[in-house]
Design goal:
By secondary structure, the chain is α/β, with parallel strands linked by helices. 40% of the residues lie in helices and 25% in strands. The strands form two sheets. It has a six-stranded mixed β-sheet, sandwiched between helices. The two termini are 28 Å apart.
């Protein structure tokens, strides 16, 4: 459902993403790992059509990110690292605004809201303005916005950032529940999260893919936990 071919993006002299290629199928949860500045968020923004690549391409559900970005955006839900929320809007107002943008109307809108509000556990703040919310609740509202049109593909950049342990557990349960029917890419620094929800792992550094494997295979190969595996790969592999 996602196919990435030789994607590259630079910012001046900085090479953020350096010709990466990978595919993600329905039923896979891919954990995109790497140190800060590795290129993870840039790669996700290109796949989600929020940033144009310098070269290479990608497709989502068969739609090319350069030739048909509108269809790509219709096919996916994207939770950015700093998901934009309008502070003066209530949570309900923001979600209805997203429904307007997604052209979800009438009975379909009611069904979408009835599904996603309890799914993300935001009933208690539905009538509050965004500016009054904690970081954790803002993150959950952002996730609700990404899920409201029930997309086949999800791209989630640090989905549990700012959540307390109980909230993290609930979001991980939600992702696991959705995994079989969707294609999901998650960027995270929490390696226990990778073990809990990811069926596959790509480790990226300086814009290049160093490893494409599964958490279990990596632990077996290096005879170590994921934290130690991550340190070994990102500090010793030559690029």
């Amino acid at each position: 459902m996602i196919s990435v071919k030789e994607l590259r993006r630079t910012f001046g002299r900085i090479v953020a993403v350096d010709g990466i290629s990978f595919d993600v199928a329905k039923g896979e949860v891919l954990g995109l790992l790497g140190p800060n500045g590795a290129g993870k968020s840039t790669a996700m923004k290109m796949i989600a059509c929020f940033l144009k690549p310098d070269s290479g391409t990608a497709s989502v559900c068969g739609y090319d990110i350069a030739k048909d970005p509108v269809s790509v955006k219709k096919s996916l839900g994207y939770l950015a690292e700093n998901a934009p929320c309008y502070n003066e809007m209530t949570v309900g107002g923001l979600l209805n605004f997203i429904c307007d943008a997604r052209q979800i109307r009438g009975a379909k809108r009611k069904a979408a809201l009835d599904r996603v509000v309890p799914m993300c556990s935001i009933e208690s703040v539905y009538h509050q303005t965004v500016e009054t919310l904690s970081k954790g609740y803002r993150r959950r509202v952002g996730l609700a916005g990404a899920l409201i049109h029930d997309p086949d593909v999800l791209i989630l950049d640090e989905p549990t950032d700012g959540l307390d342990p109980n909230q993290k557990h609930e979001v991980r349960k939600l992702i696991n529940k959705m995994a079989a029917e969707k294609c999901i890419i998650i960027s995270t620094h929490i390696l226990e999260e990778v073990e809990a929800i990811c069926s596959r792992t790509i480790i990226i550094a300086r814009g290049k893919i160093l490893v494409d494997s599964t958490p279990e295979k990596l632990k077996q190969k290096y005879n170590a936990g994921l934290n130690e595996v991550f340190r070994k790969i990102t500090t010793t592999k030559k690029l």
